[in-house]
Design goal:
Elements: H1 7-34, H2 47-83, H3 98-103, H4 111-114
Helix pairs in contact: 1-2
């Protein structure tokens, strides 16, 4: 089945996806720095500071995983645009409502298939 997206809306969403991808790439670079190994030298950092550093590192790793998932989803959405399949549910093949795509442009499924 064909997508119900207008060419204008598709251009708008493509631009939004590219901007999101650029912001995400910058954020991923910062997060990469935050997950560096924590120095365990007793002289360099006190016990509580080291525990805080380990906790921050753990939270950064969680953020890093979420960023990777989102990065992959955005790249897949851009790939579907290139293939001409963007806006079509990958589950059932029906069109995805344009409003849903404007809110979550990387979405691959219609609401029924997403559940």
């Amino acid at each position: 089945m064909d997508s119900i997206l207008t060419p204008e809306l598709l251009v708008e969403i493509r631009g939004d996806l590219r901007r999101q991808l650029e912001r995400l790439e910058r954020s991923m670079a910062v997060t990469e720095e935050a997950v560096r190994p924590v120095e365990l030298d007793q002289q360099a950092v006190g016990r509580l500071s080291r525990m805080d550093s380990l906790q921050n590192q753990h939270m950064s790793r969680n953020l890093q995983e979420r960023e990777r998932v989102r990065y992959t989803a955005i790249r897949r959405a851009l790939q579907r645009m290139e293939e001409g399949t963007y806006g079509i549910c990958t589950g059932c093949g029906d069109p995805i409502e344009p409003g849903r795509l404007q809110v979550m442009p990387e979405v691959e499924h219609c609401p029924a298939c997403a559940q």
